[in-house]
Write a structure and sequence with these properties.
Tachylectin-2, Chain A; Jelly Rolls; mainly beta; 45% strand
Length: 505
């Protein structure tokens, strides 16, 4: 008798107490039960955002990966749905791994598989009795994001290409902006010599895929040719450089095993980096090999941009996994039976070759009384947002001197964030919080002439920090005392120009 994996997931959800956990976020996507990791198939259509994600509902007793599904009309309130992809086929029996989605226009649907508006691509993972892996690239279609159908001809790409190992995964399918009517698939790969790479496939019908070649960097002086031992989750988003008005392609990926200094001095188990150039066929031209981190925080990995139909243009948005490999030891596992979350969606732009990221939130109201309290206190700490555990706070200083300091939590259990404007440093310390296993303190040097602005989005146990105009992002899990609320804000030699805040609870 074939196991009913949908029923097993539904049973796990029915027995979940995750939503009663005081650490469970209010506005960030978290699993209804079990484990979440990579975001998958992110899309926006008719004003509704849909987020799919790597989802292990029976975690930790069973590590079988589904595609979870949540949707939102405002990016603040998320509704969970039944899983979109269940690993119940011969080619994905060991897990439905990461991928992405396309929203098709009406004229594209006529020739598309099942004439479906939504096309979801993923890696089917299969391991035999000897633990040998077969990775295949597969398709799921949906007319309405309610029903999902695996393509009967799956897998589309049944195995890895010659010259690569079975670590061959994470399809990112997009329209080729330079070749009308063509689609491009980026895949993360590992060469036979155990170095990381990405490969490019192309198709005109979303079913028949032809290997175009390996992604190359002809202007990068060879520095990216042998970076790490495996590339995960490669994706390209085209942005307009604000300073020149030129279109540029931003390649975002996770080169496992990369040299720490070459990959921007990252401090996590694996880096997540980006490079800027122009993707022409298989070559990212005009890229000099410079790599920068997407996010400098303790927990961030595998980000993905949201897909839209060309007839519904909008901001380029990105969301990532607020987690890292090997971090399933968080307090929520025992307290609520769940672990990990996604970052809040961020609007992307490009300025001076650097990725700018800002959370897509309603504009907060200016808090004049907080400025007055700070002025009266002469730099001493004042309490803000008391009684709230999910909030958004923006503090702008008058000058690039002194420091802005924020303490989230209680004296005994807190996370501290210090923006040192004089030394051009961001310091984060969570050593007194309930989760420090994978990093307690971190200092990040600020590049360039950034506006003296600190933006913090805190949601119970997830905190995202943005410095300047979104020039630097920092994501972390912040398991502070759940009985504490608000934050303590202090200034040292800083005159505050504006303070604004919003609350979500």
């Amino acid at each position: 008798m074939t196991e009913d994996l949908r029923a097993a997931e539904a049973e796990a959800v029915a027995g979940s107490h995750a939503a009663n956990d005081p650490d469970y976020p209010l506005i960030h996507v978290a699993p209804p039960v079990g484990r979440l990791n990579d975001p998958n198939g992110l899309l926006i259509d008719d004003g509704v955002a849909h987020v799919f994600f790597q989802y292990t509902p029976m975690h930790p007793s069973r590590r079988l990966v589904y595609w979870g599904h949540a949707s939102s009309h405002d990016l603040l309130h998320w509704r969970h749905h039944a899983p979109a992809i269940v690993p119940d086929s011969f080619y994905d029996a060991s897990g439905a791994y990461s991928g992405n989605a396309l929203v098709l226009e009406d004229d594209e649907r006529q020739q598309a598989p099942h004439a479906a508006r939504y096309q979801l691509f993923y890696t089917g993972n299969l391991k035999d009795a000897d633990d040998q892996r077969t990775a295949s690239q597969c398709l799921v279609t949906s007319p309405d994001l309610v029903s999902f159908t695996k393509w009967p001809g799956n897998p589309l790409i049944p195995t890895h290409a010659a010259g690569y190992t079975a670590h061959f995964r994470d399809p990112q399918v997009t329209r080729d902006p330079d070749r009308p009517g063509r689609f491009r698939m980026l895949l993360g790969a590992q060469r036979q010599d155990l170095t990381g790479a990405a490969v490019v496939y192309h198709s005109s019908d979303l079913l028949t895929w032809h290997l175009e070649g390996e992604l190359s960097f002809p202007d990068a002086r060879g520095v990216l040719d042998r970076l790490g031992y495996m590339w995960e989750c490669p994706g390209v988003v085209r942005l307009t450089e604000e300073t020149t008005g030129q279109d540029r392609d931003v390649l975002i990926w996770c080169p496992q095993g990369a040299d720490r200094q070459q990959a921007g001095g990252y401090e996590n188990v694996f880096p997540c980096v980006y490079a800027v150039g122009r993707l022409e066929g298989t070559a990212l031209t005009q890229c000099d090999g410079t790599l920068r981190q997407v996010d400098h925080g303790f927990e961030f990995y595998a980000p993905q941009a949201f897909s839209r139909a060309p007839s519904q243009p909008g901001q380029a948005l990105l969301s990532g996994w607020a987690g890292n490999a090997g971090q399933d030891d968080q307090p929520s596992v025992t307290e609520g039976g769940w672990v990990h979350a996604l970052t809040f969606p961020r609007a992307l732009s490009l300025r001076h070759g650097r990725l700018i990221q800002r959370p897509v939130l309603p504009e907060p109201e200016e808090q004049a009384q907080v400025r007055e309290s700070l002025a009266q206190a002469g730099g001493e700490a004042v309490t803000v947002l008391e009684g709230h555990r999910s909030w958004h706070l923006v503090v702008e200083a008058e000058q690039d001197a002194g420091a802005l300091c924020l303490r989230i939590g209680s004296q005994a259990s807190h996370v501290s964030i210090e923006l040192d404007l004089s030394q051009r440093l961001l310091r984060v310390d969570r050593s007194s919080s309930r989760y420090t296993a994978h990093g307690a303190t971190r200092t990040v040097t600020l590049d360039g002439d950034l506006p003296p602005r600190l933006e913090v989005l805190h949601d119970r146990s997830v905190t995202e920090v943005f410095v300047g105009d979104g020039d630097l992002a920092f994501t972390m899990r912040s398991f502070v005392d759940p009985a504490a609320s608000g934050a303590r804000l202090s200034t040292c030699g800083v005159q505050v120009k504006a303070v604004s805040a919003s609350v979500f609870d």
